[in-house]
Design a protein that fits this description.
The structure holds two protein chains of two kinds. By secondary structure, chain A is an alpha+beta fold. In chain A, 33% of the residues lie in helices and 39% in strands. Chain A has five helices and six strands. Chain B is α/β, with parallel strands linked by helices. In chain B, the strands form five sheets. Chain B has a nine-stranded mixed beta sheet with strand order 4-3-5-6-7-8-9-15-14, with helices on both faces. In chain B, strands 11-10-12-13-16 form a five-stranded antiparallel beta sheet. The chains are: A alpha+beta, B alpha/beta.
């Protein structure tokens, strides 16, 4: 399990740059990110080097922030790698709410961040199927 | 039950009407003799002061409107020489020239009396510590409440509007028991208190007297809960005297109008016909004791109903229902009247929605279009787009059923809607007509 920071963003010029600057000034590194958007607002989802501090300073800077539990999964960086994992998850009826790729990689593997409906079940399934996922402390420092 | 002036506040109706008639007669003679603009209007209507022989005759007199004040800018409606005017107040003049009002020494005494009455009605007394966070200056809120609170003998903290953290500090350190300001500012203070980690139980605050803008019952509940106080509505307008024209009593079921000083009517705003008690319409006020700026049948543009039923508090003065909106605040969208307070009521009933909102009215092609900006609170913010969209859809549905027109809801970031330290700005009308 890992902590993802989500930030509510109005669709307004400069909001994304504000968030990233606040993080940058606090020496917090962004490790992965994705943006969900609608016509009126967006949600920025990030994995950062220090989620506790990031949550605090973003809140202090007046952003609406929440913390979400996600899983970082090692996906073989080869054709069909992600498909194999998704198929195994589907077979176990694991619902995925969204996913996005991590910026760096872990050796030969790519890293994908999964937000699933039932995170405990997902962990169990991954262990059973020997799908590798990354411990949170290791993830933040990657 | 505590009254400031029991004799006047609980006067028998018959006696009160006799007093009103005597004072009306005096006022009519005075404006006819000393204010050329009134004489001209009376003459045009073919009315002489001698034609006023009972309270019923009031309806023969012409109305006075805000534009009469503008046309006679700045001092031409004054009924006394400037040497007798000892105070001048003025509106902000957001739409054209400001309106200017003046007071003689006796007018200021009257006003202080009325404010002392109002404060007493809301439970304040000489042991109260009153923090007056209405803006001091040309706006009547600040000085009006201030003089009344001094008259009452309370300890007044003239904090004026603004510097909200310091306001909270003053409440803590000086043991403020009564807060006076606009309702929107009270709510903002509660928000700042929470941010500062100050709990309402740590304060001595027990009551708040809020006015100068329309506010809903739901807003009252929210304020009472957030500050742990009793919140009373006060009514007034500078053209008449300022705050203190009407005040709620402990029953909070309508505001008692100081009828020994003001004669009130409800009219149909379109036909100008006088309506009976209990019917909603525009409040019209005639001043009975004002010296510097007497007003004859002043159209307040405030919509309300009058209730003549006796009140449990023992006061005999007629009660006006909490003002739903000033017709100035009302926006007409595709022929439908929309008051910001209606939107406020809807929002306050939805969990997790903050009471900060903004109505943006625009015209696309020939069609009016209402967009309501609503702040997302920390509490309701979800990482899932779907949940936020559901929230938006719920707000849209509730607003549409309350207002009867289609609405576009836009979720905006918390604290992105300007907080007011005085009168809140709720409507931006971008239509060019």
């Amino acid at each position: 399990m890992a902590k993802q920071i989500s930030v509510f963003l109005e669709n307004k010029a400069g909001r994304l740059s504000n968030v990233t600057r606040v993080l940058g000034n606090a020496r917090i590194n962004i490790r992965a990110l994705s943006i969900a958007d609608t016509s009126d607002f967006g949600i920025l989802r990030i994995i950062v080097s220090d989620p506790v501090k990031a949550y605090e300073i973003l809140k202090e800077a007046g952003f609406t922030v929440s913390e979400t539990q996600v899983i970082a999964v090692r996906v073989p960086d080869s054709p069909g790698g992600l498909a194999d994992i998704l198929e195994q998850m589907a077979a176990e009826n694991l619902n995925i709410e969204y996913l996005y790729a991590f910026l760096g990689n872990a050796g030969k593997d790519a890293l994908v961040i999964f937000k699933v409906e039932d995170i405990e079940k997902a962990e169990m399934v991954f262990k059973k199927k020997e799908i590798k996922f990354i411990d949170e402390n290791q993830l933040y420092s990657m | 039950m505590t009254y400031w002036d029991k004799e006047k506040e609980c006067m028998q109706r018959k006696q009160l009407e006799a007093l009103q008639f005597r004072r009306l007669k005096e006022t009519v003679y005075r404006v006819y003799a000393f204010v050329p603009a009134y004489k001209e209007k009376f003459d045009q209507a073919g009315i002489k002061p001698d034609d006023i022989n009972n309270l019923e005759d009031l309806k023969k007199l012409p109305f006075t409107t805000k534009s009469d004040l503008r046309d006679n800018y700045p001092f031409n409606l004054f009924a006394v020489p400037m040497s007798d005017v000892i105070r001048i107040h003025s509106s902000s003049g957001t739409t054209g020239k400001p309106t200017v009002v003046g007071y003689t020494r006796k007018d200021l005494d009257t006003w202080s009396e009325l404010m002392a009455r109002a404060l007493t009605s809301a439970g304040a007394d000489r042991y109260s510590v009153i923090q007056n966070a209405y803006g001091y200056g040309l706006f009547t809120g600040g000085l009006g409440v201030h003089y009344g609170a001094e008259k009452l003998g309370a300890s007044v903290i003239p904090s004026s509007g603004g510097n909200t953290k310091r306001q909270v500090m003053l409440m803590q350190d000086f043991g403020t028991s009564v807060l006076t300001c606009t309702p929107s500012y009270a709510l903002f203070m509660a928000e700042v208190m929470e941010e500062m980690g100050v709990k309402p139980e740590e304060l001595k605050l027990s009551a708040g007297i809020f006015g100068a803008e329309p506010w809903s019952e739901d807003m009252r509940n929210k304020i009472e809960e957030a500050l742990q106080i009793k919140a009373y509505d006060i009514y007034g307008l500078s053209e008449i005297i300022g705050p203190g024209v009407a005040i709620e009593c402990e029953y909070k079921n309508g505001l008692h109008i100081a009828e020994d000083h003001f004669l009130v009517e409800i009219i149909d705003p379109v036909t100008e016909e006088v309506l009976p008690y209990g019917t909603q319409g525009e409040l019209v006020i005639t001043t009975l004791t004002k010296e510097a700026l007497p007003m004859i049948r002043y159209r307040t543009r405030d919509l309300t109903t009058l209730n003549i039923e006796p009140c449990n508090c023992g006061r005999t003065h007629v009660r006006m229902q909490k003002v739903l909106g000033r017709s100035d605040d009302m926006v007409i969208i595709r022929g439908v009247n929309v008051f910001p307070s209606m939107v406020e009521s809807v929002l306050l009933k939805i969990r997790g929605v903050s009471p900060y909102y903004l109505l943006v009215v625009d015209r696309k092609g020939n069609l009016d279009f209402l967009e309501v900006h609503v702040e997302v609170s920390e509490e309701i913010f979800s990482d899932e787009v779907r949940k936020l969209e559901e929230l938006g859809a719920l707000i849209t549905k509730e607003l549409e059923s309350a207002l009867g027109i289609s609405v576009k809801v836009r979720l905006v970031e918390p604290k992105s809607i300007a907080r007011s330290e005085g009168k809140a700005k709720r409507v931006i009308d971008k239509r060019t007509i």
